[in-house]
Amino acid sequence: MLMEDLFERLKKFQELLLERVALEEEIHQLPKSIAAQEEVLTRARKAHADKAARFEEVSTKVSELRQNLTDTMAQREKSEQQMDSISSPREFEALNKEITEAGQREDQFRKELKREEENFKEAEEELKAAVTLIEAQEQEIAEKRARIKNEESDMNARVKKLRAEETKITNGIDSEVVFKFERIIRSKQGIGIVPVRGTICSGCSMILPAEFVNEVRQSNKITFCPYCSRVLYYQEGEAQDEYLVDIESGSLADLDDFGDEGEDEGYDGSDDIDSGKDDMDGSED
Question: Is the whole model's pTM more than 0.70, yes or no?
């Protein structure tokens, strides 16, 4: 397989991966899109329980007050009827006291009943509002869940199609390279294959050794950046880095070997100087 063709296939694979990764993330986030509404619904249900308890409490109190008022009125009326049959001032005084006290209790019950009836009306309205809120939230969440289910189904179908295209385009590429490339895509914000410009990795902007760049330029295998792990390919340009040395003309290591050879022979230029001096003496003779 030609390297140019391999790089083009990796670029296409990258495009497919980007779309699939984005879709998978969106699918993962879909349930979270109704989390806020479910939280509102949970709070609404708790508030409804509290309001229902208050409504029940006020309702019971109103019933008790109405019964107390009815009993007090009945007691007062009975005492008033007995006034016609009394035979002594003492009996009149005792019965009149009962009537007066019953009337006072009756007035007190009426005041309390009026206050509690207002509380009952308020509690009833709050309970109805809580029920309405819960019903609205439940309906909205149900509708949104249905939409999410449809969207998720469409997205999963697209993911399945993308995976099939990925399998087709990566056919013949080493599975370990495919695995590593996908991992790079996920961790490097969607960029897994980048060109080398001069001696610079365009993915991480790090300067690469000239010998390494030569390998990228001439190699017939996939090479990964030693700094960012992205797949590298060489991109020809009008102006190349002045330190880039073509393999055919030798490497920087060759220059080092040449320097080492001179040092081993102990060359310091003195022999040439002595030889020139002898030539000069001979010419004078």
Answer: no
